[in-house]
Amino acid sequence: MSYVNRMNPGVNLTALRGHNAALVLDLLRAAGEAGISRLELAERTGLTPQAVSKITARLRAEGFAAEAGRRASTGGKPRTVLRLVPGAGHAVGLHLDRDELTAVLVDLTGSVVAERRAPLAFGAGAEAVVEAAAGEVEELLGAGRGVSGAVPGTVSGLVSGVGVALPGPLDHAEGVLRRVTGFPEWDGFALRDALGARLGLPVVVDKDTNAAALGLALAGDADSFAYLHLGTGLGAGLVLDGALYRGARTGAGEFGHQVLQLDGPRCGCGDRGCVEALCLAAVARGDVEEAARVLGTAAGNLVALLDVDRVLLGGRTVFAEGDVFVRGVGAVVSDRVGRGGGECGGARVSVGLAPGGERGVAEGAAQLVLAPVFGRADVGGVG
Length: 383
Prior knowledge:
With 383 residues, this protein is an alpha/beta fold.
C-alpha cells in the first residue's frame, strides 16, 4: 500500500476553523517571522481581545501558531508576539501540461519544500494520466517526509489537499474537464473525483492560467492584470479588482481562441486563425518576433476591453525567449494604449515576465487549496 493511502485522507482546514480564525491565520502569515501581537490582531480584525485570545490559544494547541518573542509595550508588560508555523500544514500543487507534469509540495506560507517533474502523455487517456499523476504525488510526499517540518505523521503536518492545474476548458466548480483543445476525448471526465478517490485526498481542479493568476494575486502583484500563458497552448488568467475572474460558467480566459485572421490556419479548437494557432505556427518556424507581435496584438485587444493595469507573460515558450516576448508584446500594447487617447486616459500598461518561472502554475495550483484556509476564497480556490 502506498504512503498516501496510509495517510489520514486529509483535513479540511477551512471547515476546521471559522471565518474569524481564517482572518487571524492570514494576518499571522502576512506578519512572517517577525510575528504579530494579540492586540494588533484584535485591532486589524475588529474582533475583541477575548475572541482573539481564544482563537490564538486554539491555533497554538493545534500547532498552527507559536510564540515569536516579546515586543516592548507603550505601557504595562511586554506583548507576546505570535507567528504562523509554516510546517503545520501542506498542500500539493500539480501542473498537468500536455506533455509534462510538475508537482510541488508547499507549506502554509506557499514555500516549496519538495518538487518533482516527469514526462506526461496527455493523449494516453484519463486512466493513464490519473495513475501517472497519483504516482508522482505519492513520490513527492515520500520526498517531503525527509524535509524538516514537512508532512510528519502528526495532525499538525497533514496535507490538506491537492490543487490540479491543466489546460481548459473545464468546469472548476464540478472538477470536470470539457473539450480540452486537441484532446476532445477528455470531455466530461470527472478528474477531481477520480484523482481524489485514487489518492484519498481532497482535490481542486482549475485551468493552468487561473492557478498561475491566483498565485500572482495572492502575492499582491496588481489589483487588475492579465496573465498570458504560452506553452503547448495559449490561455489567460484574469484578475479584476483583486479577484480571480472565472466567468459565469468558469470558462473565462479562453484567450487563445480569439480569431485574429478569418482565413488563417486551422486551430485545434476547430476554428481558423486563432491567436494560439498563429503564435504556435510562428514559433514552430523559428519566427519568435512574429509570435510576440501576434501575442501583443491579442493582448492589446484584451487591454482595450478590460482596462487592466498590467500584462504578465508566462509559459515555457515565453520563458525560453523572455526578452523577445516582453519587448515585442510591450511595444504593441504600448502603441495600442497610446492611441487609445481619452478611452484609456493615456495610462501606461506594463508588460513583464511573471515571477516564479515555469513552476508558477504548480505553485498557484497549491494555492487553490490554501487560499480558503486563510479566508481568501474571494480571490480564488474553493470554500
